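forwarding from the other thread:

> can someone predict this with adenosine-5'-triphosphate?

sure thing
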Amino acid sequence: MSVKKPPVEEVLEAELVYVTMPSDRQTGAFIEFVKDKSGISNVKLKLTQDKSLGGGFILRFGAHEFDWSTSGRVGQLKDKFARRLQHPLKHDENVINILQEEILDFEVQIQSKESGFISWLGDGIAILDGVDHAMYGEVLIFENGTKGMVMNITRDKVGCILFGREENLRVGTKAMRTRERAGVPVGDRFLGRVVDALGAPIDGQGPIKSRETRPIEQPAPGIIDRKSVNEPMETGILAIDSMFPIGKGQRELIIGDRQTGKTSIAIDTIINQRNNDVVCIYVAIGQKASTVAKIVNTLKRNDAMKETIVVSATASDSAPLQYVAPYSGTAMAEYFMNKGRDVLIIYDDLSKHAVAYRSISLLLGRPPGREAFPGDVFYLHSRLLERSSRLSDDFGGGSITALPIIETQAGDLSAYIPTNVISITDGQIFLESDLFFEGQRPAVNVGLSVSRVGGAAQSGAMKKAAGSLRIDLAQYREMAVFTQFASDLDKTTQDQLKQGRVLMEILKQPLEHPLTMEEQVVTLLAANSKLLMDLEPAEVKPFQMDMLKYIQEKHEELYQDLTKRRTLGGNLGERIIEAVKEFMAFREAEAKAAEEEKKQAEKQAAEAEKKDAEEKKKQASEGGK
Ligand code: ATP
Ligand code: MG
């Protein structure tokens, strides 16, 4: 059964805006034009005068607007210039030449400026009638200047996420197509700044000048454009660099329950890049504004903010802004990667990102799937993380290393979003609540963490020094459980337990104290040589710090050799062990001297006391006489 009404009954109202009254012949031509475009034969033309057009006409009907006016043409020329000058000039270009070229090439485009009207509005989403030819990802602009992006297209409706406030929007508000894809401003001036999901500054330090914008959605580099991972991206965290090394261009997931130190690992990694010429981008998604402020302060305090951009869509921002934030951050990262620089980007966290996407999708009427997430939530994250890569030298050799963060519920790695992101990334650092509360911080679970490609980027010295650390730790954890209640253990088992305890202590690391590769190698060599086995657990950390300081002061050449060679060749390993032994002897001598001093002091005190007592006795006996 057809519901279409016969076209003869429809009357189409069109409006013609003019400066000089059109002749009858012109009016007739306009009516013919409308009939032709709309397919409706009964057209009523309303005439309105508007002198501000300067000349020409504007014709509006349905969702269409055709602009033949002088002001429209000037506007088109202006847009064309603006678009051309948005891109930075190449060295052999100058502005005058470009403008000349653009004017000579200029042709007026008479095309319909399609518009539509809001038919439903709420929670950062608008559903529109009209804008029939809008494309996926296109920016729409509303009457009040608010912008939105097309996210859903059905036969007769267009769903759009809003980038601004909804306050002045209502059902019936007009929206215009822009034919542009959503983008964010990018540039060097963003370094050291805090911006919102659309790149607008929110740190109160004034506007950011930028001439370039990049689309927020961009295809990932192709296979040919990429190079394999072979340079380390050092986190400065011993537990990670030694066992789960990360390479530039890698995607390593940080996963764990709430409050297990996920953000801290990311922030310490940024702090470790302060002298490494790496651009860092921290994307905060759905976090408290106060948490973000604290992070910015930590970075500033550690002098790590100058090469960092913080992109923040807090919990109070709308779901669309939280959804867009990681893509905006990645667009900014790509700007630097394409200039040949290394970038580290942190998405904190993608669980909240998935939740924002779920609420948008449900409002747009997409069918919910597992855990009520839409079916394409896997694609959402793979499309984002695939953009992190290492470019080949032909493309400048830049890289983006991504550290996405995922929050699990009660350590459940097999939930929908965690399994998705685990399968997209090149490995994961799994943080465990139990370890965290035992005081083992960072709480890296050695058994469940892995880095699939970073080994290729680890320095030879580190690889050698780390040795069988991972296996030793795994064995220790297992044995510790089994021997919990055993009373008499054989010597080998006792030694293994002692050594395991030392290794666990060595891997503890306070916040904001990244270790250099050299310090990590020395620490690992000392621990793995079993020299520290007889230390009490509480003594291990102070021992490590004193040892590193001692070697820095007395054997600086060892650190220098390590920096230069990056391997333990030419008996460097043995020399380091010697230095450690020397420190142990020094420490023992110092302890002995301290002991001696203490004994001496005690002896003196005892003697003084004895003298005192005798004196008193004497006085008493004299008094008695
Ligand atoms: P959330 O789930 O709330 O985002 P999170 O997993 O990101 O938490 P953090 O905020 O990084 O965890 O850390 C939680 C707390 O643990 C913080 O107070 C932090 O100072 C502390 N913490 C984290 N790592 C360490 C560490 N290595 N040493 C000491 N304290 C730490
Ligand atoms: Mg956190």
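Residues 256, 258-264, 407, 441-442, 509-511 surround adenosine-5'-triphosphate (ligand 1) (CB under 6 Å). thats all i got for now
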